[in-house]
Amino acid sequence: MSSQDPIKIMAELLKSGAVMLAETCPVEGCNxxxxxxxxxxxxxxxxxxxxxxxxxxxxxxxxSRAALSMLLEKVESTAIRxxxxxxxxxxxxxxxxxxxxxxxxxxxRLKIIAKKRNIP
Length: 120
Ligand SMILES: [Zn+2]
What we know:
Elements lengths: L5 H10 L3 E6 L8 E4 L5 E3 L3 E2 L6 H32 L6 H25 L2
Antiparallel strand pairs: 1-2, 2-3, 3-4
Helix pairs in contact: 2-3
Protein name: Sjogrens syndrome scleroderma autoantigen 1
Organism: Desulfurococcus amylolyticus DSM 16532
InterPro entries: SSSCA1
């Protein structure tokens, strides 16, 4: 895309119904205006798809999503390790195993919710 004339690409974008935004491309030295496609995606004529973080709310949202998925990974691996050691014990404590299985179930549910929130 970089070998193409950005003005031409901008014209194509406008023709396709994209809207020019007040924000500019965050890539250093670019500063071209960003375009919002009909699909809701924000693109730079040179750099393609750009994720724009506009407000504090959105910064928080992006951060909490990353923190949440990191936390879920940790909880999941802890639960798996716990179950693994519980089932290798001579006296299997099924209540403990069930507790950890419930944790895994909740993690799975939260992962689905976290994924859904990814869709713009
Ligand atoms: Zn750019």
